[in-house]
Amino acid sequence: MKVPVWNPAVEFLEREALERLQLANLRKTVAWALKTPFYRRRLAEVGLHRPEDIASLRDLRDIPYTTKEDLRESYPRGLLAVDLEQVVRLHTSSGTTGMPTVIHHTQADLDAWTELVARCIVATGASRRDVFQNMTNYGLFTGGLGLHYGAERVGMLVIPASSGNTSRQVQLMRHFQTSVVHATPSYLLHLHSALMDEDTDTSPPSLRKAFIGAEPHSEETRRKIETLFEIEAYNSYGLSEMNGPGVAFECLYKTGLHLWEDAYLLEVIDPDSLRPCAEEETGEIVLTTLQRQATPLLRYRTRDLSHLVGGHCPCGRSHRRLARIKGRSDDMLIVNGVNVFPSQIEEALMKAPEVGTNYLIQVEKRGALDRLAVKTEVHAALFAGDARVLSDLRERIAERIRAAVLVKPSIELHEPGSLPVSEGKARRVLDLRPAF
Ligand code: ADP
Ligand code: ZN
């Protein structure tokens, strides 16, 4: 198979040359960072005053971490490294876990970001012959404009549909023969239910690929999307602090997400001891921007959990791969003392063929104990039959989740379309326990 590629010179760069490029870019980044009072102070504390003080990539380890709190405390402009006149845009995070963080961009920053997104798109086999419908929010959220400019650079016909308005999305797909979409996995599943309600019985035949990201999802959910729409779905990872989409993406082979290492310096650390993780060992992703002028970030702790995939990808790209993101370290629920990741529940749930496209995890306090409940939509036909079928299914799902997370939840089964839907990132967890 011929591997589609946007920028072969960089994407296939040998490791040694790639690391030389990283070192040069790290020095530039430190020079930009030293223009901000925040990093001048931080770096002075460890004796780093000039970019030349970085002799090798190993010296990165002397640099202190930057956290989400640092970004929040520097709000709105404490991390700006260029004159305001050079800034052409700002974006913020979605604020899923608190006050949003803000990132400023120069024109060069936007161009570099666009280049990374173009690489991702082409790596999946999409091309200028495709019609691309971008179903994520256009605005401060980076998924809209980020993918938009990348797709235009590739030369695709871009439909800037933005999020929501499902019937119009369907109409656009049918009228303009959309072949590639970008959406959150939860929204695509919702879109599929809407298509089924339409009674036209099929998804648009022109559709062949989806880019799915912005929220944690399991391999089972990807497969479900692929089967329901009869398409290929590629995982897209990014965060506004690192521009947005375009940080790491799956190629045609789907063996993990290639992270563009000329643009981001990757570390995976144990979030408690802060020591580096071994390959294949799960830890927190830490990223350093290597190309961004306006808001350089050094050793940013993303709180996202993943691990490095060993070996080589058949596509031949030298940029290393991250495994599917397991969730955020702060997503973890502690239920009666047991650590539970929502992604583990999703994986177990989606293995049941009767399960539909939407679910919700709820934790409550009952007396001294925590009570875990999982509400899930199941196929409508099940409600017409014998009640015993439903109670057997509840028991089977509860057992499957217990085997995965060691806590047995109560299961509520709902008709399709009855659980709340979000147009952006899905809210899968409702923690109703009182805060201390
Ligand atoms: P917020 O952090 O407020 O949600 P962002 O819009 O910047 O704001 O979202 C980035 C976050 O979304 C990432 O840090 C990660 O937790 C999550 N995310 C993005 N892409 C993926 C993906 N493919 N898989 C799992 N989680 C993802
Ligand atoms: Zn690959």
TrEMBL record:
Catalytic activity: 2-phenylacetate + ATP + CoA = phenylacetyl-CoA + AMP + diphosphate
InterPro entries: Adenylate-forming_Reductase, AMP-bd_C_sf, AMP-dep_Lig_C, AMP-dep_synth/lig_dom, ANL_N_sf, PA_CoA_ligase
UniProt protein name: Phenylacetate-coenzyme A ligase
Pathway: Aromatic compound metabolism; phenylacetate degradation
Known role: Catalyzes the activation of phenylacetic acid (PA) to phenylacetyl-CoA (PA-CoA).
EC number: 6.2.1.30
Family affiliation: Belongs to the phenylacetyl-CoA ligase family.
Group of enzyme by EC: ligase
Pfam families found in the cross-reference section: AMP-binding, AMP-binding_C_2
TM annotation in the entry: none
Keyword annotations: Ligase, Nucleotide-binding, Phosphopantetheine, Phosphoprotein
Alphabetized GO MF terms: ligase activity
Boundaries of every AMP-dependent synthetase/ligase domain copy: 81-287
Domain AMP-dependent ligase C-terminal: 337-433
PANTHER family linked to this entry: ENZYME, PUTATIVE (JCVI)-RELATED, PHENYLACETATE-COENZYME A LIGASE
